[in-house]
Amino acid sequence: KEKNRDGYLPLFDRFASFYSRYVYRRIRDCWNYPICSVPGNEVVLKDRVTNDNGWTFEFTGSKTKCLNLASYNYLGFAENSGPCAEFAIDAIYKYGVTTGGTRQQYGTCDLHVELEKLTAEFLGVEDAITFGMGFATNALNIPTLLSPGCLVISDEKNHASLILGIRLPGATVKVFKHNDVKHLEQILRESIYKGQPSQEGYKPWKKILIVVEGVYSMEGTIVRLPEIIALKKKYKAYLYLDEAHSIGAMGKHGRGIVDYFGCDPKDIDILMGTFTKSFGSAGGYIAGTKELIDFLRKNSFASKYAWAMAPPVAAQIIAVLKILMGRDGTNEGQKRIETLARNTRYFRRRIEQMGIIIHGNEDSPVVPILVYLYSKIAAMVRTLIKEKIATVGVGYPATPLMEGRIRICLSAAHTKEQLDYALAVIEKVADEIGLKYSRKPIDPT
Ligand code: PMP
């Protein structure tokens, strides 16, 4: 690498990859849209014009309202006109927007105590602890639980926050094929039989942790939880389940993937989730036994050294939890859970009928439309924006190289008319850019 004029090696590896140099630069207008409204079922975007060089842009001062298929607003609680906003506003008046400290240093307010009690109750476990950021909940708590000599077995499609958390503590990491329980068992069997390599030969692992997600955010797949629970029991491994995309959104009562399969929440050693999606708020939680949560309260990097969750954020989550648990005296929560499930099945079925390839389970509100090629990501995002529909384009390195996709997140807040409009536009774009790959004719009835 060349030194610059002052003799420094480059700080950023900006031109390291072909993709950042040639591809991303040419299609980066597909991302980074500043939003100027609540990320509800519609969202207002700041308009931009692309400069003559074709890849930088400037804001024009005008705005466009789009149908929002891009935000993780599964239950429609991101709307500020919703029933929770007044709780958040009251909390600002009462507590301000900061806690003024970490959890152990006067950063715990009574809202945190109430929220953690409610979260544990909602999930059906003994206790829970909350954190200011979902990403940090994974990245900073997993290292608290592991050390060199431990083995982590991680699904290949796990989120970046999990991967970071798994790499930090110096444990041995093995990766199993996405949702492939046979491969997981093979790794478990071989690892237990052999143990960890040491100077004397092999010795047993200190502990084994299996790490999976409830609904995978780029795939829309659902974890094969009952089989994984059976394996973790058989091989005496611990199980860490990230419910970021499933809590609130999946299961008859919105209690996540554990609820969806009717499993016992106590069979999952570490239940993790975020409040950024179904709760329209921010932050994350870990739930489990009292012993686990007490340990994290004392030892977690995220509670010892990081600012506590902001009070209005906690107030919003409490309000949503009460609605989901029916404590507001209505069946609003149940209604939203059912609407999301209905919207999801309807939208997925219609897309499949068009012959467009999508990934994931029929009940998953994350819908990745496979466009495969980079150029098609750009073509689709741009055309949809012109038609006033916001979606997220995702490509390498977040997906395999030739598996670019448009990711759509469905919401209970979407009306049937909105979904029908989106479906009609998607079909038109799919015809234009050649997306109808499925050879199997699908019965439209
Ligand atoms: N886990 C998963 C599976 C995620 O998809 C995400 C982000 N979408 C996170 C954790 C991080 O959560 P947050 O965005 O709330 O910080």
TrEMBL record:
It catalyses: L-serine + hexadecanoyl-CoA + H(+) = 3-oxosphinganine + CO2 + CoA. It is an enzyme of class 2 (transferase). The gene is AUGUSTUS-3.0.2_08315. Keywords: Acyltransferase, Pyridoxal phosphate, Transferase. Its EC number is 2.3.1.50. The chain holds residues 134 to 578 of 590 of the full protein. Residues 65-426 form the Aminotransferase class I/classII large domain. GO terms for molecular function: pyridoxal phosphate binding; serine C-palmitoyltransferase activity. Its cofactor is pyridoxal 5'-phosphate. This is serine C-palmitoyltransferase. It comes from Tribolium castaneum (Red flour beetle). It comes from the Eukaryota. Belongs to the class-II pyridoxal-phosphate-dependent aminotransferase family.
